[in-house]
What we know:
Layout: H1 2-20, E1 33-42, E2 48-55
Antiparallel strand pairs: 1-2
Amino acid sequence: MRSPVVLLTLVACACSATARGIATVPAPARQSSVTTDVVYGHKEDGLALMLDVHRPAHPNGAGLIAGETH
């Protein structure tokens, strides 16, 4: 009879701790990132057309396209 009581007590403590937020893990902080040299096409002579993709830490839905020649 002792084993079910101990098990029930452990389950109750675990549920109580989770409900109070003790067992929650904070989300990792977001960081901005850059993916370089993404190929988006090719010229007729086979030369790759590339761009860099910048992703902000806190996106707001806006986008930007900037061109650069080399």
